[in-house]
Amino acid sequence: MQTVDISRLGDLLPQGSLFADCSDEELGEIVARGQVRQFPAGKEIMAQGEEGDALFILLSGTARVSVLAANGREIVLDYAEAGEVLGEIAMIDGGLRTASVHAFTECEALRLTRGAFAELTERHPQMAMRLMQALARRLRQTNLTIEAERAYTSGPRLARFLLRLMIGGAEDGQSADGGARLRLALSQGELGNFAGMSREQINRQLSAWVDCGIVALNQGRVTILDREALIDIAEEW
Predict the structure, then answer these.
(1) Class of domain 153-235
(2) Chain centroid to CA 220: how far?
(3) Domain ranges of the chain
């Protein structure tokens, strides 16, 4: 059976996340009650509409969180990084999964069942409050995604999502031309799903920004050359 290093888990958890303020003793109890799962790239971790009886703590890799709209189009809500908690909503209320999660890269995750989490909250009541705070942040982020879908035209919408990828921990340092390179190598189709745009719209918009010196494309990978210009575009209506 695979084990999880407790200090490594503590370092992974982002500030304000569900288990971020846990002591080493509490983290040890979480690890003892969880099961480590491996997911190759592309593998489904959870499916929208299925019953959910467990949450997952992402230990490594990147996972794509998405929902299927009524018209059949996939809307990508987020790209989750190591340390993030997934599937907590259905785990709590016993309802159906509100989103699908797929491994974007090879992922390792710690699975914690509803029963195990109930035992933890009985022993450590403060976890229940942190859970409510985590759910509020998740709802706020989802509302922002829906707002961007409805309120912004394609250019500002794409700019906002590129900045989210960069600011939200998806920056991998600087490229050779000094620009900020996104950590995730997303195809134009994947960017379109994330920004709520067609592949053709993405292609036209990125080409226009390349001509203006705002971004650069290298083998399909986006590098942000003029972050301030992109921020200005993101704030347009």
Answers:
(1) mainly alpha
(2) 21
(3) 6-151, 153-235
pLDDT value at residue 46:
96
- Indicate the class that CATH gives domain 6-151: mainly beta
Q: What is the spatial distance between Cα 100 and Cα 47, in angstroms, rounded to a whole number?
A: 4
In the prediction, which pLDDT does 16 show? 64
Judged against a pLDDT cut of 80, whether residue 81 lies above it is answered with yes
Round to whole Å and give the CA distance between 83 and 59. Answer: 6
* Separation CA 1–CA 153 (nearest Å): 50
Closest to 170 measured CA to CA, from 39, 80, 69, 49: 80
Q: Three-state DSSP class for 68?
A: strand
Q: Is the pLDDT of residue 146 over 70?
A: no
The residues with which 85 forms a beta bridge, in sequence order, are: 57
Q: What SS3 class is residue 125? A: coil
Give the 3-state secondary structure of 161-218: HHHHHHHCCCEEEECCCCCEEECCCCCHHHHHHHHCCCHHHHHHHHHHHHHCCCEEEE
The pLDDT tens digits of the residues spanning 206-218 come to 999 999 999 998 8
